[in-house]
Amino acid sequence: MTALPRPGILSAVNKLKDLKVLLLSDAKNSFTNRMEQTLRGLKAEVDSIATRKGKEMISAVNHFNPEIIVCPFLTARVPEAIWSKKERPCLIVHPGIAGDRGPNSLDWALFTGKSEWGVTVLQAVKEMDSGEIWSTSNYPVEKDATKTSLYVGSFSDAAMSTVLDALCRFQDKIPPTPLDYNHPEVKGCLQRAMTDADRTVDWTKSAEDVLRMIRMSDTQPGAVGEIFYQSLPDRVFRLYDGHLETGESSEAVRTCLSACKPGEIVGKRNQAVLVKTGDGKGVWIGCMKKNKSDHPELKLPATLALPKQCAHDIDTISGRCDYNNIWVQKADSICYVHFDFYNGAMDKLGCERLEQVLDDVAKMEDIKLVALMGGDRFFSTGRLIISSYLQFISLYEPYITLLKSMFHVRNFCLYFSHIM
């Protein structure tokens, strides 16, 4: 039996020059932008459109007249008028291993604890995700990966090489491989769409179980959790930005955890709240929003998402915690300043805390170089703007103040770890 087509054999150098490629997607994101720029760098002729409307897709195809169509991020159905023309293939970038089908592939991979997952470029056909395979590849999944970190990291890298491989095969007139569930390399299956019930947190379970729910629902739509606190009227929230708290670093934290029941708010720190889990540990929740379907709610730092009086009443945890989104590391005369804000968004209090850290670093006489490390996925995506039906608060000024402090640390050379 012939092996499935995989990247690593064909080279895209000089092969995609002048190839007319149309990119269809729901919206522009980091991956669609990366694909467009990569193809342009390889001298392909590229056009792109972000839409969910079939008529607009058809219009874009008729206007550009591409040789091949690629859908890097598309959840809407491709019109039959587009995919039915076999001489002009329409390729779907599916975020799953060969044979995997369904709308929540990355979510299920994290939910089931997969140590390896994949991406498959397949031909668009009437039945979702069941077309012929143009190329497929696998990648490792880190234990603490979130859906977003997986998408912008390992998935994006693998998907880019897989798409290029598929385009090279098209140029070389190598036909795709039919999807055959009897093939030993086809290990995926059809998976149903996830529901809120699948994403609902059970606080009586372990902290790792709770974190898995939050990580797999990261950014959109968020895990669902009922949080208990004495003065909290609406208890069901969407939960984001979860972090483990073992209590091993501080007796004060262990004491706070032992005094609470699973699901109860233990305390707060730097706009995050700590919730007790069934194994005696806890989970820090960095961001939340009310779980209401009648009107959209904003995703906010946890203490801002809670009613003001409730957030005020929660005790501040003073002991050393496992989680902190701002920290420093020193090595000889170098100080590394890390600031890992959720999705890179810096609100007023976050800016002020980081400014204070930089002021403290400026007083360290033995430090000659300050390296601004940013976070794991982002250096900074800028200011966080908080709005509601009653008010609009711009946090632009604190962000500018912070940037000024970055460039005015006395007697230091500043090094940025990310390209801004």
From TrEMBL:
What sequence ranges are listed for the domain Formyl transferase C-terminal? 194-290
Please name the InterPro entries in this protein's record.
Formyl_trans_C (IPR005793), Formyl_transf_N (IPR002376), Formyl_transf_N_sf (IPR036477), Formyl_transferase-like_C_sf (IPR011034), HoxX-like (IPR047180)
Q: SUPFAM superfamilies, from UniProt?
A: FMT C-terminal domain-like, Formyltransferase
Outline the extent of the Formyl transferase N-terminal domain.
53-151
Domain of life of the organism encoding this protein: Eukaryota
Q: What is this protein called?
A: Uncharacterized protein
Q: Which organism is it from?
A: Sinanodonta woodiana (Chinese pond mussel)
